[in-house]
Amino acid sequence: MDLHIAGKSAIVCGSSRGLGKACALALATEGVDVWLNARHPTALKDAAHEIASCNGGKVHTVIADVTTTQGRDALLTACPEPDIVINNAGGPPPGDFRDWDQDQWFEAINANMFSAIDMIRRCLDGMIERRFGRIINITSVAVKLPQAELGLSNGARAGLTGFVAGIARDPVQYNVTINNLLPGFFDTNRMRTLLQSRAEVAGTSVDDFKQQFFARVPAQRPGNPDEFGAICTFLCSQQAAYITAQNVLMDGGLYPGTY
Question: 0.85 exceeded by the pTM?
Answer without folding.
Answer: yes
